[in-house]
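Memo to structure team: turn this sequence into structure tokens by end of day. - J.P.
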Amino acid sequence: MAGCRMFVLVCCLSFFVPLVSIASDIEVGTVKSISGTAVILRNGNGITAKAGTKVRRSDWLVTGTDGSMSVVFLDDTLLAIGPDSRLSVIEFEFSPKQGKLSFVARLIRGTAACETGMIGKLSPNSFRFETPVANIGGRGTKFAAKVSDSGK
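Reply from structure team:
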């Protein structure tokens, strides 16, 4: 009897594992352009970025000392990162009909410029850009941020 219960538990849990994986595999944007060295880190694997590469929730966008990358998100947010930058797409949800709007990115190092898309216009409190020392809320605006190696 205990073996049967364990089998049922394992079967139930194995049903949910793919759902967690699917949630992080949702495409949220597309690389528009790159210059120099630019990589997307996904689940611990490096993918050479090129125009047309899909960006997913939980991806890290990384550029080398000679690199830059621009991404257009599904809500038309435009994001550009400069040389020697490291940025994570923490959260992105764009389902206006269901009222589900969210954009959270975290710049750990380097430079970034952003023009908010529909999320910043429809739900300003749902757009957040994080750095080690401050958070920026997007209200249908353009902004730029720089984070040095010391986190300032």
